[in-house]
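Extended Data, panel c. Modelled sequence:
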Amino acid sequence: MVSRIVAASLFLATCLFSLAGCGEKTVTVSGSTKLAQSEACFSNNCHQNAVSPGTGKNIAEEWKLSVHNTSNAAGCADCHEPEAGHPNSCSRCHGGTPSGTPGSANHVSSNPDTDGKCDKCHAKANGVFNTTTYDAVALDTKFNHFSSGRHAVYVAANYKYYCRKCHNPHDTTTARTMLRQWARSAMGGTTLPSTVDFKTRGSALTASANYGNFCVRCHTSTGFINFVTSGFTNVHALPDLDGVRNDYPVNARSTYQDTTREPTAACDTCHSDGRAYDGSAYSGKLRSVPAASIWYMYSSHPAGAPLIRAALNIAYDSLGNSNVCMPCHAGREVGEIIKTADKLGLFNYNGTNPAGIAPHDFASGANLQGRSGFQFFSSSRYTAGTAHRNVGAGLNMTAQGACIVCHMVNDRPHYALAASWGNSSTVSNSIKSMPSEQQVCSTCHYAGSAVADPNRRTATFMNAERDSYRAAVLVLNALLRSYGIYGASPSLSPNNNWKKFGNYTVAASGSGKIRAGAYTMGAYFNYSLFFNDPAGYTHNPIYSKQLIYDSIDWLVNNNQNFTAGANPGTVYTAVHNAAMPALPLTSSGITYSGPYTTDQALSFICKNYVSGSGLCYRW
């Protein structure tokens, strides 16, 4: 009888210990650690086999890796807050409801993130941490996560109580290095002010019918997700706090009650745990995005011409996992839309000249696939199929695609930089190192390689290539100015003088019967395209050389019988004698500082160039 009483007493003591650890609301037992308290939760046949719905890993083991455990910061009860009497192993054997258990089933927070429990330590106003909580981020965590106004923030309206869109709720530490890198990247950083609240720039129309705003699809994380998960059709503005959207053509509201602004790309932009009912992305699994299908839309009504509404769809080739990069690096327009608009009468105007069609910024994906520029001749005259599209093949990483392989296969992948500018993140400065050179570039570019250019992609070599490329772009700037086509100042304040050389049908356009006005606008388009792709010289090297060469050739040798590569002497002379613009020259956040020379330009665009030869042959 005594033995039974002793055994029962021991069993009861065990149950009470379990209740003290797992069943009290944020109670710290004197002298105990968060690990000791939490072991009562995952060592009692209740939660020890629980698996994370995001990562598929054991939750207890994940938590043990986190700073919440290793710094004795937060255990199970701190986040899940079970009320006193939370069911434990007692009820498994004895049945019934333990004394003190609330009648409601919601007596424990099954999703502390949704319930706002992270705010206990990480809130803007009353949290524990109100200074910098991780290294090397220019602004402190509070600002990056919560500040409203002109800066993008991680905890914008669609991310409030949704920390798991970036953070693993159990293992908060393993991914910390990647998160730090992303917070300093060009796409994930929040240090620069945003002059436009892009969540308000959207349309109620589908992408194929929309001639209004659609900035939301690439300048907000949620807008991008809506776009790529809808077959590239949804360009809705994000809703305000009351659900009202500033959608074209209704334009219900231009100023939102919601003052927060999303970053260009948060974690869930490129990642998704793949659960339809939950937008979490902390597993690190890549978001599955199909090959991009982008609509290019142009609308204009120049005086003396009909209303022009041109639409062009380009179905891009699949780049594997790098498909996630293409939608926002395909440009807002491509050169082909100028020809489409010409056929609809764009250059029939007899009054104010129409504004120049421009590609927008960083159309590197469209450049890579050779679909971006204005082509002066048939496609057969252009080297669109650059080997860089398949750059992962030599590393058995074809599925990753060129963008990921070149920008992320290095020791700091979440900066997403194939080149490093040292302590400065601006592409305007000289390249200090090439993080991906050893692992990626050197597989093809090395002494004795059979590739067209076997030179190692060192920082010295890449700076020389970049400067030659920039010099060629600036020569195009100089010629556009000298012929009075697009502005007198280096910033190219518009003249829009597209009919400078007439408006006859150009024979080189073949059956398309494109007119000279379109060709002249095309030269301007290519200037804008390459000025705003800082690495056009490596995304698609020969394609960029050909387009810049043809643009210069057209400005110098425009005529009805314009022919590819037929004017090596006059092209050389025009480039050699070009009056380079005053520097520095800044546009879209990119600064050309120089100095640059016309001989650098010739070395970039001329095939097998010999300095002083007087000839510049087309690639």
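Residues 459-482 form the longest helix (24 residues). This feature is highlighted in the accompanying rendering.
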